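Good day; I would like, with your permission, to put a structural problem before you. The record follows directly beneath this note:
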Amino acid sequence: MPFRFEKKSTVGWIVCLNLLLTAPHGVAAKDEVGKKPATETTDTVIATMGDVKLYSEELNKLFANSDPKARTRVLTNPKLLEQTIREELLKKFIVQQATSSGYDKQAAVQWAMSRAGDNILLELYVNSKAKPEDSFPSEAMVKEAYQQNIKNFDIPHQVHVAQIFLPLEGDDKAKKVTTEQMADLAKKAKTKNADFASLAKEHSKHVESAANGGDMGWIPVNQLLPEIAKEVATMKAGDIKGPFHSPQGLHIVKLIESKAASVRSLEEAKPVLIAGLKKQRLDTLRAQFLKDLLDKTPAIINSENVSKLK
C-alpha cells in the first residue's frame, strides 16, 4: 500500500480542533458576560487576569476533550501546563473584552462565528462517519508500509561535537590577532587533560554552544558546515582538530562520539506508520462518504438564478 508522509495536517482540521477546544470559552463569554459562573462558589480559581477568572472546571473540560497523549504531556510538564493556563486565560480575557465592547454583535462577526460553528459540526460529523475501524491498520499493513517506505526511516551518520569558534572580523591586524589567539587555544585544547569545555565557555563566540562548553549536541554530518564535515570525517572520538577556516570564521572542533548511519526499526517507526495509515484511511472513507451522499441526494443548481448573483 503506497504510503504518504505529510509534515502538515490539513489546515481545516487544525482550525476545527482549535475552535472546538476554545469554543466553550467563547460561548460562555458571549452568553454570560457580566455574570459569575454558576460554580464560582465551589470551583477553584486557577488564574486571574484583571477581573477575569479561569476555573479548574474549565481546564478539566479542556483536557477531557483533548487528545490523551497531549493531555498527559501537558499535565506532566509544569512549564507546558503553566503555558497552557496562560494561553487559556488570555483567550478568555480577550473574549470578554470583545463581548463587553459589543464587538460580537457586529453582523460580520456573528456570521463568522456561525460559519465557524457550522464548519466544526461538519468536520466532526463527517469524520464520525469516516472513522477508521478499530482494528485498522493490521500488523501486516504496518509491516508492508514499513518495507515500502524504509528509505524514509534512514538515520544518517551523526556526530556529537563541541567547538570553539571565533569570527574573523575587522582589518588585517585584527584578523591576525584572532588567528594567533585561535592557534594558542588549539594548543591548549590539545594538551593532555585539557578542559575543552572551560576553554569554549571562556573564549568561544558561538553563542548557542559556548554556554554548554562548546557542546553542539548530535548533528547529522550532512547538516554540518562542509569545512567541519570534511575534518570530522577523519576524526576518532576524543580527537581535536583546528583551527581551520569556514566562511563564518575559525573553528576548533572536538569529536565526542559518532554514530554510523542506520535504519530506524519497525518498532521505532510504528507510531508514525500507524498515524499515516489511519490518516489515509480517514481520507478515503471521507471521500467515499461524501460521494455516496451526493449520489443519493444530488445537488441541483439553478443556472438562471446563479447568473443573478452579485
Residues 11-129 form one domain. The CA atoms of residues 197 and 213 lie 4 Å apart. The longest helix spans residues 266-296.
